[in-house]
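Q: Please design a sequence for this.
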């Protein structure tokens, strides 16, 4: 395996947490917490810009990682959960309550996949197919959090 492939797998698996034997997506979502803290010190426009860049990077990394795993959307790829959780909390105050509520809601929407989340998961392939459903789960979560807060 080349160094590039190793780095892609490291990023795609959220620093290897994607290899957790149980609930890798849940562990991957937790990896997003330090990134949320980093984003929270930025003005909203820069937070949004940073999250969009992260999403673009996540799509590219997922696109590159799928052939290495030789599987469509393998569970070990968790960079999509990280991106979705960032989307959910961008622009919100970072408190224990917002992090916990965001985490629980995001995992709910990511697992249940209400319309149109499942549609995006099925319609797109490659990196976009891996990441888009989580972005929509993050958007749903963010909407509910904004209604709550």
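A: Design:
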């Amino acid at each position: 395996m080349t160094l590039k492939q190793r780095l892609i797998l490291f990023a795609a698996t959220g620093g290897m947490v994607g290899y957790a034997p149980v609930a890798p997506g849940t562990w991957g979502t937790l990896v997003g917490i330090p990134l949320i803290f980093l984003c929270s010190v930025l003005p909203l426009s820069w937070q949004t810009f940073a999250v969009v860049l992260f999403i673009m990077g996540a799509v590219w990394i997922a696109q590159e990682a799928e052939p290495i795993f030789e599987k469509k959307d393998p569970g070990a790829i968790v960079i999509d959960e990280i991106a979705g959780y960032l989307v959910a909390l961008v622009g919100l105050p970072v408190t224990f309550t917002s992090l916990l509520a965001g985490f629980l809601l995001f995992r709910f929407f990511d697992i249940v996949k209400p319309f149109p989340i499942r549609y995006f998961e099925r319609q797109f392939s490659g990196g976009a197919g891996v990441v888009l459903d989580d972005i929509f789960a993050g958007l749903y979560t963010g909407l509910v959090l904004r209604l709550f807060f």
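Q: Thanks. Anything notable?
A: Residues 90 and 110 are 17 Å apart (CA to CA). The radius of gyration is 14 Å.
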